Amino acid sequence: MPELTLADLALEVRSKNAGPFWVTMELFLRDGRAYRIAADEKFLDERVIAALYRVAADTVRIFRIPSLNVVKISFPRPVSQGSLRDRDVHAGQHHVPLAGLVVPPGA
């Protein structure tokens, strides 16, 4: 059986700028069950995001919005938007590692 990922649970996974110094990612989950899995702090927390994106865990902000089945995640950009070393000006590709995160069996 293939592995289940966050992308499989979501209607949409996207990322975007939250100003020139922050990235925001949003998981729009299919239903309440998918939301409960994605919002579970034992599965998705600041340490997981820090490891995926190589940022300090204490800089990661996770907002769980059960009434909308949405999980929103923000963290500082590694370089400011539009700077010489910026490889994704709109932060439109940052969601890919999050979308591919494998859901633990039995979750």
Q: How would you portray this structure in words?
A:
The chain has 107 residues and is of the alpha+beta class. It has helices spanning 6-9, 32-39, 46-53, 95-99; strands at residues 10-17, 22-29, 61-65, 70-76. The protein is elongated and about 45 Å long. It starts with 5 loop residues before the first helix and ends in an 8-residue tail after the last helix. The model has no long low-confidence stretch (mean pLDDT 90).
Q: What's the average pLDDT? A: 90
Structural Rg: 14 Å
Helix amount? 10-25%
The total strand number stands at: 4
Order of helices and strands: HEEHHEEH
Strand order of the largest sheet: 1-2-4-3
Number of domains: 1
Main beta sheet: 4 strands, antiparallel
Number of helices: 4
Shape summary: elongated
Instruction: Indicate the proportion of strand residues.
Output: 25-35%
Unreliable residue stretches: none
Terminal CA distance reads: 15 Å
Structural class: alpha+beta
Short description:
By secondary structure, this protein is an alpha+beta fold. It is built from four helices and four strands. The protein is about 25% helix and about 25% strand.
Helices and strands in order:
Blueprint: H1 6-9, E1 10-17, E2 22-29, H2 32-39, H3 46-53, E3 61-65, E4 70-76, H4 95-99
Antiparallel strand pairs: 1-2, 2-4, 3-4
Pfam families: DUF4387
Domain DUF4387: 6-100
InterPro entries: DUF4387 (IPR025496)
List keywords for this structure.
single chain, DUF4387 domain-containing protein, 26% strand, 107 residues, alpha+beta, 4 helices, DUF4387
